[in-house]
Design goal:
Elements (H helix, E strand, L loop, with lengths): L11 H16 L1 H4 L7 E6 L5 H12 L3 E5 L13 H8 L5 E6 L4 H6 L6 E6 L5 H15 L6 E5 L6 H10 L6 E5 L8 H11 L3 E4 L11 E4 L10 H7 L7 H4 L7 E3 L20 H22 L13 E3 L20 E4 L5 E3 L8
Parallel strand pairs: 1-2, 1-3, 3-4, 5-6, 5-8, 6-7, 8-9
Antiparallel strand pairs: 10-11, 11-12
Helix pairs in contact: 1-11, 3-11, 6-7, 6-11
The structure holds N-carbamoyl-L-aspartate.
N-carbamoyl-L-aspartate (NCD) binds next to helix 3 and helix 7.
Length: 359
């Protein structure tokens, strides 16, 4: 069975198949209507969402399927202390596939270990957001015709922005992609992405301190919101909240064929004056999210019993009861997940569930 917890759970070929199917759905929507009748999607959202939850719901409805679930876990047995593993065991009796968003990092990976239906990670804390990655890849493909060879600037909160982490991982599989990171010191990309992802896969990145100095070379500008809800210190948030703002003056420096992406919601980081610029692709990106989720649901259910589509071979896990993940937002520190770690190439030991450095 195939879950989608991390973008690398899909092979490049499976990713391409999903993107192509999404394009076919866009071109021939009527062909897919009703294709998921008699199937049920459960949306389990432990954290706020507009686009992701509604696009999953709308995607399943377009396919003629049904949707059940919750958007506020406080009204469910979670408030009685039910674990994510027990919840997916139960919900798997009522549905064929589950999309789950959780504020705890690694919650979906832990849940998938016992699930009898495919689990889709719809965002776990500041860790990963693989369905936004599929949305972004489809959007880049539709805006520019290709992903290979692009220069992409990531701007804003690269520390807590889970969409950035997941998209960078996926980009390691495309040819000649260059990455530029535009973030204040406090919001820089986590080390594990720089070292275990970019350096390991030979994805070149450089860090700059202003948008102006890179605007002319970008094919994609990926703007992000500063993730207020992830800060432990409010003063720190206040210092960085308006760090980079995209306006018409900055757009004037960019290529004619550049595209601006943003997973949304935006707060102050893109002025509304940019919305009418034909290069502002963020609302088109939202609609792509629905089509790509339709394609994902179709494919995960098609692959469910196909031995050719399994979860990728994982690195060997290291179990050590004497070691602790020090991320308070990790599933290990919120439920009784095992003390399980992975050994990175450089000898670093990282938490299996949230990727934080342990040793
Ligand atoms: C993003 C998320 O939830 O991570 N939104 C989304 O899913 N489209 C980005 C954000 O909240 O800033």
């Amino acid at each position: 069975m195939k879950h989608l917890i991390d973008p690398m759970d899909l092979t490049k070929q499976e990713t391409d198949e999903i993107i192509s199917l999404a394009q076919d759905i866009i071109a021939h929507r009527e062909r897919y209507q009703g294709s998921m009748s008699h199937h049920k999607l459960a949306t389990l959202f432990y954290e706020p969402s507009t686009r992701t939850r509604l696009s999953f719901t709308s995607a399943m409805m377009e396919l003629g399927g049904n949707v059940l679930g919750f958007s506020d876990a406080r009204n469910t047995s979670v408030s009685k202390g039910e674990t994510v593993q027990d919840t997916v065991r139960v919900v798997g009796c009522f549905s064929d596939i589950i999309a789950m968003r959780h504020y705890i990092e690694g919650a979906q990976l832990y849940a998938s270990e016992v699930s009898r239906v495919p689990i889709i990670n719809a965002g776990d804390g500041s860790h990963s957001h693989p369905t936004q990655t599929l949305t972004d890849l489809l959007t880049i493909t539709r805006e520019l015709g290709k992903v290979d060879g692009i220069t992409i600037g990531f701007c804003g909160d690269l520390r807590f922005g889970r969409t950035v982490h997941s998209l960078i991982k996926a980009l390691t599989r495309y040819k000649d992609v260059k990455i530029v990171l535009i973030a204040p010191e406090e919001l820089k990309l986590p080390d594990y992405i720089k070292h275990d992802v970019c350096d390991k896969c030979g994805l070149p990145y450089r860090e700059v301190s202003t948008m102006e100095e890179v605007m002319p070379e970008l094919d994609i500008l990926y703007m992000t919101r500063v993730q207020k809800e992830r800060f432990l210190d409010e003063d720190e948030f206040d210092r960085v909240k308006d760090c980079f703002v995209l306006d018409s003056a900055k757009m004037a420096l960019a290529k004619k064929k550049m595209a601006v992406l943003h997973p949304l919601p935006r707060v102050n980081e893109i002025l509304t004056e940019v919305d009418d610029d034909p290069r502002a692709a963020y609302f088109r990106q939202v609609e792509n999210g629905k089509f790509v989720r339709e394609a994902l649901i179709v494919k995960l259910l098609e692959w469910k019993d196909d031995p050719a589509h399994q979860m990728p071979q994982q690195d060997a896990a290291v179990y050590d009861e004497t070691l602790h993940c020090n991320n308070p937002k990790c599933i290990c520190n919120n439920e009784h997940a095992p003390h399980k770690f992975r050994l990175a190439d450089n000898g670093t030991l990282r938490c299996w569930y949230c990727d934080h450095k342990v040793k």
